[in-house]
Design brief:
The complex is a heterodimer of chains A (708) and B (63). Chain A has a single domain, classed as Amino acid/polyamine transporter I. Chain A contains 27 helices and two strands. Chain A starts with a helix and ends in a 39-residue tail after the last helix. Chain B is mostly helical and 63 residues long. Classes of the chains: A mainly alpha (708), B mainly alpha (63).
Chain lengths: 708, 63
């Protein structure tokens, strides 16, 4: 009995810590608070959700069964199917789901204050995001690792399946453009950043040759060499920008970087993976895990004070300079990765389900890894919120609002209600080794300034802040670019497959003309959005980011719809709220956001209102502010037409998937349709929970250990 | 002595597993038990195939 009490006592303590931290966060008014309360609130909530809610889902809703062999055990071939140690698989899964998303979204959402983002990141993950990842992982595992698209087609129907496929392609294009735009904004006019990122190319080529010809598969040693060279490149960048006299030659405009990225994306997609993509991937994975770890340690050591208020006026008036629109729904669109990210459903239904040892491990890997990603988002939010809000807004508002000099920015931001001096803006730029930080939108530079303050607080002080800033920029740009080239490649394969249905030779992925045409089409698609975004008079990030968020949440809607359908087919109507409530929420958020983007009469929010205002101005021969020329006004008209049309398409896709699935649900509930569960048949498992092979099936003799 | 080295050894094991350095050894072990009659792939070929599988598959990463 005492033992049992002890077991619950710790959870009572955790609950109290969490409740107190939430209380401090929610009740803080006007005074600054320490980041430690955010950390405690997050960790306590995660722990309780993992222990109680995730366990409930695992045992009652999914009824995982460890006597049942997983596809990794049944189909083990030592390659794509292989029972992998759960801790190693957790690492792989986490590395695959944690990209740039959780770092960018929270930084942008910080304009509303730190509280709205915090609430959504923490409660979104435990009730929606981690649930989506875990259930998708489980359902795909029961179906031998089928992809989300295949499951949508088989469980819902061809219409839902087609909508899912289109969603994947569309999200890919928008996503690549938005991420590439983040890099463009971080590298423009920054010789230090441009040099060190350019150096990653020869470093990757060197590693590729080493891995291919000299020492195949020796990933660790080549990664050590690569990381060492990477540090040399960052230090070299400092020399280039400050002492060499080549700073001018390494200073590029936004448009130049756009073209460089487009050329790079095309070449990387056509070249064999081993030469460029795979080695960059190793580098970026190590850098990513290492830097996220460092950030966590840095926050714990320095325990920074959050200078951003818990909520800003923009949370209520919808007139924020970073992105316009009211708190609901836009905070939920802006922060996707870290709270609820549809893209994870692709990973949870891709590689990971083929590697799970035991069914019960879906909780640790699916739910657990998502909690860690959510924690990364919290850390990014802390890094943005510890900055002086004046600096934050000077960096993140569009050039149309803050101009381009410290003086104009100081005036504009002070007028927004956040007093800041021109000196402190230019001092911040000097400290991080940049010529200007005004209107460096996209989130990456802001996060880098925040991280550099944290890191410099641990090692090196102000003397090393410029180094740490460029370290952070390098780390973000490196793995964003890895996403760009890998994403282009994946898009190329999907397109080749698609065209292959019509014109046979295309189906052969190694046919060079097909490769070149498909790569060109994908690069042209995201390159178009990238170029339009980089030259957008209205500011590209604030226009494109909501579209990206909507596309990502659209994919989440597909995943949750598939999950709900399967739960109903499994006879789990009683527990269907587990996926149905997040789905309803996600649909409400996405459709409301689409509604605003399509129908809002506020030209800061609605694409079509922007369009008609710009058109009216153009027809009258006037310019449409903040555009300064007639050509720019015409550009606004084109951009908003495309963006508005996409919003309509995304909203339609969501409605179609959900309506198609509801038809299936109602059919089953009314008993008119046979609920066919398409699982792979049951086979006994001979693997124990530690991955050891047993002589007899799991659970034989000693009673069943089902659901344990 | 042995006990003190344990965390280091675990960390080293984890690194080798997660980086994929051990993947070929796992493959060899499985291959020799399931298809003792067939010639296994050599190290270079194994990693080439693994790479192709990873990068030709949309489900292998997230933004």
């Amino acid at each position: 009995m005492g033992n049992r009490f002890g077991r619950y006592a710790i959870w009572i303590v955790i609950a109290i810590v969490g409740a107190v931290s939430w209380g401090v966060l929610a009740l803080s008014r006007g005074e600054t608070i320490n980041a430690v309360w955010l950390l405690f609130a997050a960790l306590a909530t995660y722990a309780i959700a993992y222990r109680f809610y995730a366990r409930f889902i695992q045992r009652k809703v999914l009824e995982t069964d460890d006597t049942r062999a997983t596809p990794a055990e049944r189909l083990n071939n030592g390659q794509d199917f292989e029972p992998m140690d759960r801790r190693v698989l957790f690492g792989h899964h986490f590395a695959a789901i944690a990209g740039a998303g959780p770092l960018v979204g929270p930084v942008l959402a910080a304009q509303l204050g730190f509280l709205p983002g915090t609430f959504w990141i923490i409660f979104g993950v435990i009730l929606a995001g981690a649930v989506q990842d875990m259930t998708t992982l489980f359902f795909s595992m029961r179906r031998d690792g089928k992809s989300l698209g295949q499951m949508a087609r088989e469980e819902i129907g061809p219409v839902g399946g087609a909508a899912a496929l289109i969603a994947v392609l569309a999200i890919m294009v928008i996503l690549l453009a938005v991420l590439a735009l983040v890099v463009v904004n971080a590298l423009a006019d920054s010789p230090w950043g441009s040099f060190s990122i350019a150096m990653t190319l020869p470093i990757a080529l060197l590693m590729g040759v080493y891995l291919r010809f000299l020492r195949p598969g020796r990933v660790l040693e080549v990664s050590v060499i690569g990381v060492a060279l990477l540090f040399a490149a960052i230090i070299g960048g400092g020399y280039i920008s400050e002492a060499s006299g080549y700073a001018e030659a390494w200073t590029f405009s936004k448009t130049q970087i756009v073209w460089a990225l487009i050329a790079y994306g095309f070449i990387a997609s056509v070249l064999p993976v081993w030469l460029l993509l795979a080695p960059r991937d190793y580098l970026s994975t190590f850098m990513k895990i290492g830097t996220i770890g460092l950030l966590g340690i840095g926050i714990i050591i320095t325990l920074p004070v959050l200078q951003m208020p818990s909520t800003t006026p923009f949370a209520f008036n919808g007139q924020g300079p970073v992105f316009a629109g009211p708190l609901f729904p836009f905070v939920f669109i802006t922060i996707a990765c870290g709270a609820l990210s549809g893209f994870h459903a692709l990973i949870a239904s891709g590689t990971t389900p083929k590697l799970i040892q035991k069914e019960s491990q879906v909780r640790f890997i699916g739910y657990g890894a998502m909690l860690v990603e959510s924690f990364v988002a919290i850390m990014a939010l802390i890094a943005a919120a510890l900055l002086d809000p004046g600096i934050y807004f000077a960096m993140n508002a569009t050039a149309g609002v803050v101009g381009s000099t410290p003086e104009s920015a100081a005036t504009a931001v002070t007028n927004l209600g956040f007093a800041v001096s021109a000196e402190s803006i230019s001092n911040t730029a000097t400290n991080v080794g940049e010529s200007s930080i005004v209107s460096r939108t996209g989130g990456a530079p802001t996060l880098a300034v925040g991280m550099s303050e944290i890191f410099a607080g641990v090692i090196g002080g102000q003397a090393l802040q410029a180094f740490w800033y460029h370290f952070a920029i390098m780390f973000e740009a490196l793995f964003i670019l890895t996403t760009v080239d890998a994403g282009t490649r994946v898009g190329r394969f999907m397109l080749q497959d698609l065209i292959g249905n019509v014109y046979r030779p295309f189906a052969n992925a190694s046919w060079l003309p097909g490769n070149i045409v498909a790569s060109g089409l994908i690069v042209a698609a995201w390159g178009y959005f990238l170029y339009a975004g980089a030259t957008d008079p209205l500011g590209g990030i604030n226009q494109l980011f909501p579209l990206f968020g909507i596309a990502n949440q659209l994919l989440a809607a597909v995943a949750l719809t598939v999950g709900t359908t399967i739960l109903i087919k499994m006879g789990k109507l009683k527990y269907v709220w587990v996926t149905l409530v997040p789905l309803a929420w996600d649909a409400a958020v996405t459709l409301t956001a689409s509604w605003y983007k399509i129908f809002s009469s506020d030209p800061k929010i609605g694409f079509f209102q922007q369009r008609s205002d710009a058109l009216a101005a153009y027809n009258a021969g006037e310019v449409f502010a903040p555009a300064t020329t007639l050509e720019a006004t015409q550009q606004v008209i084109t951009n908003t037409t495309v963006q508005g049309t996409l919003s309509v398409l995304f909203a339609l896709a969501i409605l179609i998937v959900i309506a198609d699935a509801m038809r299936v649900w109602i059919g089953i509930i009314r008993g008119k349709k046979e609920p066919v569960v398409q699982e792979a048949p049951y086979e006994e498992s001979y693997l124990d929970v530690y991955g050891k092979t047993l002589e007899e099936p799991v659970g034989a003799g000693v009673g069943s250990n089902r659901n344990e | 002595m042995n006990k003190a080295l344990r965390p280091v050894r675990s960390a080293w094991w984890y690194l080798k597993e997660i980086s994929g350095e051990n993947a070929y050894d796992h493959y060899l072990a499985i291959h020799t038990t399931t298809h003792p009659d067939r010639q296994p792939m050599d190290r270079g070929e194994f990693y080439r195939r693994q790479q192709d599988e990873k990068y030709n598959n949309p489900g292998s990463r997230c933004p």
